TrEMBL record:
PANTHER family: BLL1145 PROTEIN (PTHR11203:SF49), CLEAVAGE AND POLYADENYLATION SPECIFICITY FACTOR FAMILY MEMBER (PTHR11203). Residues 11-174 form the Metallo-beta-lactamase domain. The lineage of its organism: Bacteria, Pseudomonadati, Pseudomonadota, Alphaproteobacteria, Sphingomonadales. This is DNA ligase-associated DEXH box helicase. Keywords: Ligase. It comes from the Bacteria. InterPro entries: MBL (IPR050698), Metallo-B-lactamas (IPR001279), RibonucZ/Hydroxyglut_hydro (IPR036866), Xnuc_lig_assoc (IPR026360). SMART domains: Lactamase_B. The keyword Ligase applies. One of its GO terms (molecular function) is ligase activity.
């Protein structure tokens, strides 16, 4: 086999699968697109024909409207695109997120999109998919990024809520994935009280609930008396943390859920009083463990902290290369 298959072509605006005449997560409109998940740096409007999981299509429909040609493909189902055998497998990132496995002329390539390995009650767990070429993200591809147990971070949130009964805890969380993760992790630890939502989070949380994710009681901040928000947990987009909107809340303690909260300077820049290190991306140990377990002949790194992961592969005698894809955000959506 060649060290770089002629049928998979990395370009700045996406990965082109030549025999299928299809692109994976293209950053500009194309005629045929395979979409790993619904975040805006992977799913865009304007494509003609699209293949994605039913949940990802529902997310895309909510955000962009329907594509002219939508093709839902469930986890493990296979399709043939001009001789390329394609299947989608859980990535553990957000609802509907998938790794895309492609097999052509005896060679197998897996594109992970974004992924994580640790349990998440809001989406299907990551599935290990052996392959010859493993195309991975590296958002947190530095040894300093080792995420703590999620239950410990949620425990900090609950402790702050108990210690601050006359105010509320305002948690910044992205609309797709992070907000629902925080909600379901709270429920997993037995928190059954209503959780209050900024209006920008309501539709996506409803979509998750419609797809069978147990969210518990959720209420809008809009229309709720300020006094009734005392002793509660409120979720809002990160952009709302310092916005005029937050003035309607009673003495809020500002928090944010993100893998980047490991970096103290980032928390300070945002004025975050309670940083919660909760990420929807693999940390350093998850990245390196996954590469070991997949045991590919080659690793391609799509975005993030590429240099350290390339060096790790070199030390472990694994061929690796960096792909300069444009339009990728550091985590979730900016």
């Amino acid at each position: 086999m060649s060290s770089a298959p002629h049928w998979i072509e990395p370009h700045p605006h996406g990965i082109f699968v030549r025999p299928a005449n299809a692109w994976i997560d293209p950053s500009r409109p194309v005629s045929r697109a395979l979409i790993t998940h619904g975040h805006a740096d992977h799913a865009r409007g304007g494509h003609d024909a699209v293949w994605a999981t039913p949940e990802t299509l529902a997310i895309i429909n909510l955000r962009y409207g329907r594509y002219p040609g939508e093709n839902a493909i469930g986890y493990g189902d296979a399709l043939d695109l001009n001789g390329v055998k394609v299947s989608f497998h859980p990535a553990g990132h957000v609802l509907g997120s998938a790794q895309i496995r492609m097999e052509y002329q005896g060679e197998t390539v897996v594109v992970t999109g974004d992924f994580k390995r640790r349990p998440d009650p809001s989406c299907a767990p990551f599935e290990l998919v052996p392959c010859d070429i493993f195309i991975t993200e590296a958002t947190f591809g530095l040894p300093v990024f080792r995420h703590p147990p999620t239950s410990e971070e949620i425990g900090k949130l609950l402790a702050m809520r108990e210690a601050h009964p006359e105010g509320c805890v305002l948690v910044g969380a992205y609309a797709l994935g992070k907000a629902q993760r925080v909600i379901t992790e709270l429920r997993a630890l037995g928190y059954d009280d209503p959780i209050y939502l900024h209006g920008a989070l309501e539709k996506m949380c409803a979509l998750y609930a419609d797809h069978g994710v147990a969210m518990g009681p959720l209420l809008p901040v809009a229309g709720t008396d300020k006094a009734d928000l005392r002793g509660t947990i409120v979720l809002a987009p990160p952009s709302a943390l310092a916005d005029r909107w937050s003035r309607r809340l009673p003495d809020p303690v500002t928090s944010m859920a993100s893998g980047w909260m490991r970096v103290r300077a980032r928390a300070q820049q945002r004025g975050v009083e309670l940083p919660l290190i909760i990420s929807d991306h693999a940390d350093w140990d998850e990245l390196t463990t996954t590469i070991r377990e997949v045991a590919p002949k080659q690793v391609w790194v799509t975005h993030g902290r590429e240099e350290a992961l390339l060096r790790w592969c070199e030390l472990h005698q694994i061929k690796a290369r960096a792909l300069a894809l444009i339009g990728r955000e550091d985590e979730d959506e900016g």
